Amino acid sequence: MNRHPGIAVAGLSSLAAGIIHGGAIGLHAEHPQLARIFIVMTLLQVGWGLMMLLAPRVVLIPAGILINGAAVGGWLLTRISGISWIDGLGVAERPQIADSICAGLGAVAAATALASVLIGSRPLPSVRLSYPAMACAVLVVPAMWTGSTHVHDHSSGTASGNVIDESHPHDHSDPSVVGVATVEEPHVGEAHAHSTNWPRAYDPAAGIDIGGVEGVSAEQESRARNLILDTLETLPRWANYDDAVAQGWVSIGDESTGYEHLVNRLLIVDDKFLDPSAPESLVFKAEGSKRTLVSAMFMANIGVALDDPSLTDYAGPLMQWHVHDNLCFRNNAEGRSVVAGVLNAAGQCPPGSVLGGIGIAMVHVWIAAHPCGPFAALEGEGAGRADVSDEERRDLCQHDHEAMSHGAGSATSSAAAATTSAPTTTTPSYKDNGSPRITLAGFPGVSAAQQARAEELVFRTRTVLPKFATTDIAIANGFSSIQDSATGVEHYVNWSYINDEHELNPDYPESLVFQVGPNGKRTLVSAMYMMGDSYSLETVPDIGGPLTQWHIHNNLCYSQDPFVHGSTRVVGVTSENGPCSFGIKLNQNPMIHVWIKPHPCGPFAALEGVGAGQIKPGEERLCDEVHSHG
Three-state DSSP class for 248? Predict the structure, then answer.
């Protein structure tokens, strides 16, 4: 009997690809146009496949070539550049299991159908389809399984300009709350004294409430409102981190703060001013490996002072410009300039870094909700310096955000609360309850900035570090044990992290500390951050002042050099600065613990005994009982 060779295989492949497309329809319900395309493609591929299996007609073979060829071509476009005129496919996506299998089956269908046309009809025995059918089933099942739990990884902007993370499954029933990036309320010990009606809590989904602010003209309010609206509309085009990098924005390596700034240096000198289509810097919220675009950071031209009328008159008291005149930069291993730290009390940068970025005025415009308004600065070192005191700044806010959200009307309720609150002599408790966000107030000699930095480091560590929860995960990520479990804890060290570009970064912790239970079970309890070889106890970063005590180990002997062999273990203990009778000593890198479990001596406590190491001469050993376990 005359048949076109391979046409049944083409039909099976098209049928399988159509089934996968059908399974993805519901996953794209938030993009009706894209969902309809999937419906049409499902019907065409399944229909053509069934026709080729049940009643193949020569005249219909070219249709299968076109249908499946179009499906494969569309898939390639979405991986290379995106398809701007189809909602949901506007940015390029990374290939994933489900869509790659679907495209592969479509390619097989189109190629086999084309080959059958070119070869033509000829006498062939009966076709056995059991093996091809089994192969298609083996491909379809995992494709549909993974497709149901892993949605396309493009980031889509909400109406308010916020970002939905589609790298994880989510519930589409309430789009107003799904995946919207919100900003953590600041936790600085000192409240800032501002006028009662600005700044206000800001949520673009609820409207832009910037009216009625004392000292703001109608023209200034209009300019500010239009800037917010234009930024909300335009900025999400760079919601995909990789797209931003591909278009010239470069990270300054500050993701350990919880926010990562990407700067486009060409745009700093382009003479454009507050232009959302050419933002000098993009601000991404950093949560582990996830990046969510939350703000633009616009920069004025180089040399324009903070009190220049072109800045201060633009939006009046609504907007506060700031500079960063204490940031130190150094080149990382890739030759990229990244933040290395801030000036110390003596006005010096960390070794190997230089002062940079002086004098460029900048301001944020948020597309994500923020408790301190649409032009809010970051907290701590991220706030920079304005031309007024922190208490007078309009981009920092009080921490009674409930009252602040009521605008001018909050003055009455605040006053009432002040008059009706009975005085108390109860000493406040600052015990560590184990939550990621704790307060570190109440410790003598700690400034508000030091407290904020310390709280932020605890928060980031407790949020991110659990991704290394088991020793198997640690080993898979390059950590190796130094075999010190006899002490009750076991350190796993990633020796390649010690002199890399990351410092105090829970995504790249130099050491993980596991508590060893009676049954030998290991429980992750702490990070141990280690500074690079260029640091000493005298030059370590000032995180929390007296809250954070660094130490070294100058009396441990190791079996071998881990920087040569990749791992090592502790084989002995000697006197401080004494020689090793067996094994070798390693560099005395400063280190500090950050506990993800409450500790009797606070979240930065050292170990006891040999594990405590040596502290700076003249210091007393820290035991922070103010923030001990609650």
Answer: coil
Single out the residue in 121, 152, 183 at which a domain terminates: 152
Are 272 and 388 in the same domain? yes
pLDDT in tens, 372-418: 899 998 877 777 888 888 788 888 875 443 333 333 333 333 332 23
Q: Are residues 331 and 277 in the same domain?
A: no
Does 294 share its domain with 349? no
Considering the domain boundaries, does residue 43 fall inside one?
yes
Of the ranges 141-145, 169-173, 452-456, which one carries the lowest mean pLDDT score? 169-173
Q: In this structure, what token pair is assigned to residue 463?
A: 């949020």
pLDDT tier for residue 368 given thresholds of 50, 70 and 90: very high
**Tokens representing 239?**
């919601």
Domain presence at residue 410: no
Biggest distance spanned by C-alpha atoms of the chain: 100
- Rg for the chain, CA atoms, rounded: 30
**β-sheet with 354-355: strand ranges across:** 337-342, 327-331, 354-355
How large is the angle between the packed helices 7-23 and 97-119, nearest 10 degrees? 150
137 and 42 in a common domain? yes
Residues 145, 208, single domain; the answer is no
Domain with 539 in it: 448-627
Write the CB contacts of 347 (distance below 8 Å, at least 6 apart in sequence). none
Are residues 380 and 515 both part of a single domain? no
| Within a domain: 170 | no
Which sign does the torsion angle of CA 141, 145, 148, 150 carry? Answer: negative
Residue 437 lies in a domain: no
Rounded distance, CA 209 to CA 369, Å? Answer: 12
Cα separation, 154 vs 112, whole angstroms: 32
Q: Residue 421: its pLDDT value, please?
A: 37
Residue 59 burial (CB count, 10 A): 6
Contact 239, 163 (CB under 8 A): yes
Same domain, 295 and 351: no
CA-based nearest residue to 621, from 551, 573, 525: 551
Burial of 439 (0-12, 13-18, 19+ CB in 10 A): middle
- C-alpha to C-alpha distance for 103 and 106, rounded to whole angstroms: 5
